[in-house]
């Protein structure tokens, strides 16, 4: 997650701003310390009239207090402005940038790939898949409090503000896996709001998306698990293709949980709290309030272990 390990044009521009600021800061600090040491030099004080004294003081205030900061800040601004510009969603010479929506929730990430007319949106959570070598426009917002979207090795960051949409353009040079983290304190589980970013070649990205875009296959088996899911979970969680008649929605609040349609293929649970492996979902369902205290999913004490294990086993099969 290091900004110094840049892997895209925006991050590279920010890398140079970082170095420029470091160098300017070091030069300014060293000069100030040098002047400070200079004042310790013992010597005969020349006799000055109050007028001369005022004159000297004024020179320092104007030169060091006003001119120097103005010059250094303007220099940094001239250096940094193109960096900010590189992350704006300006028109491209050829075609349009890929568009991905990212919505912050306490404490997880909703990722949406809007469909063309008539197509479904592909929805997933806590894992962002994007194509390599081309600009991607991230349209970001928040559902509750202010979060911030930041993929250090690609560039950023940008606040995600409830009720407001903003767009940040990022590009990854090559395929790879990158870490990302909510960068604005958003409550008790802010640290457990990790985003797993996977950059794929264009072909692999198209295939990944197409798999999820195609109409869901009817689910077979796991009848009890699906019924229990309809009763206890479906009010908050969506699973593509899940039959409406099984959904019991008697919630008196509007908390929403991550879309679980492709949960079996995701790398982690709870926004990076647990690695996904066999049995991990059942474990998460029983211990999520200890693993991630205060998270918005209520505890499932009223559901017996066997049922939770059944549901977990079924969810693990959900892959596009
Ligand atoms: C009141 C709404 C609510 C109910 C009911 C609920 N959940 Fe959740 N669930 C959430 C929220 C919110 C999260 C995100 C927690 C976090 O990571 O901070 C979550 C997270 C999860 C995750 C992890 C998803 C991921 O992307 O890592 C799974 C799996 C899950 N829930 C399954 C279930 C199952 C199975 C049930 C029923 C037994 C259930 N949930 C009931 C709200 C709910
Ligand atoms: Cu956050």
TrEMBL record:
It catalyses: 4 Fe(II)-[cytochrome c] + O2 + 8 H(+)(in) = 4 Fe(III)-[cytochrome c] + 2 H2O + 4 H(+)(out). One of its GO terms (molecular function) is oxidoreductase activity. This is cytochrome-c oxidase. One of its GO terms (cellular component) is membrane. The keyword Iron applies. It comes from Billgrantia tianxiuensis. It is found in: Membrane. Belongs to the cytochrome c oxidase subunit 2 family. Subunits I and II form the functional core of the enzyme complex. Electrons originating in cytochrome c are transferred via heme a and Cu(A) to the binuclear center formed by heme a3 and Cu(B). CDD domains: CuRO_CcO_Caa3_II. It comes from the Bacteria. One of its GO terms (biological process) is ATP synthesis coupled electron transport. Its EC number is 7.1.1.9. Residues 95-211 form the Cytochrome oxidase subunit II copper A binding domain. Signal peptide: none annotated. Keywords: Copper, Electron transport, Heme, Iron, Membrane, Metal-binding, Oxidoreductase, Respiratory chain, Translocase, Transmembrane, Transmembrane helix, Transport. The chain crosses the membrane at residues 16-39, 60-81. Residues 220-319 form the Cytochrome c domain. It holds the Pfam family COX2. It is an enzyme of class 7 (translocase).
